[in-house]
Design a protein that fits this description.
GO terms for molecular function: carboxylic ester hydrolase activity. By secondary structure, the chain is α/β, with parallel strands linked by helices. About 35% of the residues lie in helices and about 20% in strands. About 50% of the residues are buried.
Length: about 300
């Protein structure tokens, strides 16, 4: 449930608008930091919970939140467990924890008089997409979903799969004996992977201090869920109207995954593949298209 908002330790890297609220929630005994961005329209429209990807933070979604606010959509941007300013083990990606974070956000939103509890939705990128899908499997309070290049199955090449699985096994042994995960650097992998299709944006992402710190201290098996999940086997239980958005040039999760996810869903669903975008579509050259599709989907299904 929600806690009293605490502003003292929050130092956003990007300026906030005056009406934005910085919050601190509780999830599995950890502090989860969030930013509530209210709609710029007087009517009670949809409210979107935003779950970032592995190694990310809520500030990456400020531009999207501003765009959606103009369409009459409020946003609650989260720093997920182990990321950004939130508590938890640094850079761990645990679906148990991340789903709990989303449910804590739902609990909090239900206490706000400016939020219609029947119009709550979630947006997630990559591992954040995994989390919102897993949450929707068990929590019907989510009425609509936008999955952006969501990780729903292992799509790594077999050689990398074998390497990461072996390192995870070593990590389990280290955790057994020391209580701590194995920490490795996957910065070189980041160098070889295209996160955004736009060369300038991709170059900036590769030197982003937050992402470099996360990838230089990648915990195994603590973050293995960033790669190894089987969410696609459970999504048939989702009832929320689900929009799947994918970058045509996504080299991490191929476009074929978008269609496999679409086929596995039994709810109201749709796929949009965006030309000129890579994996990080919310930051890429055609990010406004991502924002517009998200807003249109929410206003169509949660009017």
């Amino acid at each position: 449930m929600n806690k009293t908002p605490d502003f003292s330790s929050l130092r956003p890297e990007r300026p906030l608008d005056e009406r934005w609220e910085l919050l601190k929630l509780r999830s599995l005994e950890a502090d989860i930091y969030a930013c509530f961005v209210p709609s710029e329209k007087p009517s009670s429209g949809p409210t979107l919970i935003v779950s970032h990807g592995a190694g990310e933070f809520k500030e990456n979604y400020f531009e999207m939140a501003r765009s959606l606010a103009k369409q009459g959509i409020s946003c609650l941007l989260l720093d997920m467990h182990g990321h950004g300013q939130s508590g938890g083990k640094a850079y761990h990606v645990s679906m148990k924890e991340w789903v709990a974070d989303l449910q804590a956000a739902l609990d909090y939103l239900e206490t706000r008089p400016d939020v219609d509890a029947k119009k709550m939705a979630a947006f997630g990128l990559s591992s954040g997409g995994t989390a919102i899908l897993e949450a929707a499997v068990i929590d019907p309070r989510l009425r609509a979903l936008i999955a952006l290049d969501a990780t729903v199955m292992n799509t790594l090449p077999w050689s990398i799969t074998l390497t990461m699985a072996s390192l995870s096994a070593v990590g389990y042994l280290k955790r057994w004996f020391t209580g701590n995960d194995l920490r490795i650097s996957i910065v070189q992998m980041l160098e070889e992977v295209q996160l955004a299709a736009d060369p300038e944006i991709n170059a900036r992402l590769k030197v982003d201090p937050g992402k470099l710190q996360a990838f230089a201290n990648f915990p195994l098996p603590g973050a293995s869920a960033a790669f190894f999940v089987n969410t696609i086997h459970r999504v048939s239980k989702i009832s929320a109207a689900t929009l799947i958005i994918w970058g045509e040039q996504d080299n991490l999760d191929p476009v074929s995954t978008a269609y496999k996810l679409h086929d596995a869903l039994t709810c109201v669903k749709h796929v949009e593949v965006i030309e000129g975008n890579g994996h990080a579509g919310h930051l890429d050259r055609n990010r406004q298209r991502v924002f517009d599709l998200t807003g249109d989907w929410l206003l169509k299904h949660l009017a």
